[in-house]
Amino acid sequence: MVQARMEQALQRFLPGSEIAPERLHCAMRYAVLGGGKRVRPLLAFAAGELTGADPARVEVVAAAVEMIHAYSLVHDDMPCMDNDVLRRGKPTCHVEFDEATALLAGDALQPLAFQIIAEHAVADNVGAQIEMVRILAAASGSRGMAGGQAIDLASVGTTLSLPELEFMHIHKTGALIRAAVALGARCGHVPETGQLERLERYANRVGLAFQVIDDVLDCEASTATLGKTAGKDAAQEKPTYVSILGLARARALADELRREAQAAVVPFGEKAARLRELADYIVLRKF
Ligand code: GRG
Q: Is the peptide bond before 21 cis (omega within 30 degrees of 0)?
């Protein structure tokens, strides 16, 4: 099972809590281990299945993506951003430790992601491996996730059009999801251009569907089910798919995105079965 395998891999890649500086390493482990749906690793493994990738390679890139994801959650939860106290059913990192330690834990998780990709042979040649580092860097930076977060912070209390909302989420949530698929696939036989385009279309639709459902669940699910504070978007006057479309149309949009994602990988046949299943999971999930 991918989740169990990832837990073991992440345990291994993260510095032990007995290694100095112990408090920082404890905070990094706290942020990454023992929680989370591991959606991005699941996507990386499914994309790797499509290209016949060695799971030992996929494990490395999936762990790297998950470290970037965990760092983003730690920073997002801090008082200067979303200011939340609950994440994955536990106190957020800055509540459990302190703000400076949480900031540093995020800061240290980010380079560790690139370090593990650099230290393991995840591709057949150095050029392909550097390209994988580039993909993760671009997805995380100002024209990827961090840029999307900046747009998100600036949008509080404003109204966004649907295309503006989509632009924000293609960056904030979508960039790392697309990177997970791209990196997982590149651990195997590098797909031809047409195949890569299909995979990118799949990842783009799944990334948006993930966010639409995140917005829906923020309205419909409880804090206990989500393991994070529910109802925050409305309380903070954030523009969301639900605030723009309403619940029913937001769900319908997620379903349309799911069907588009699945259609994009039909030509791959059985090799894409896991990717199609994950599109279902992302839209039908309850938390
Ligand atoms: C601080 C640079 C920086 C970026 C933060 C990802 C992000 C950007 C903020 C998280 C806040 C949020 C609600 C984002 C929308 C969707 C999302 C990424 C949810 C959390 O991801 P899940 O559901 O979390 O995969 P788990 O805990 O399951 O890993």
A: yes
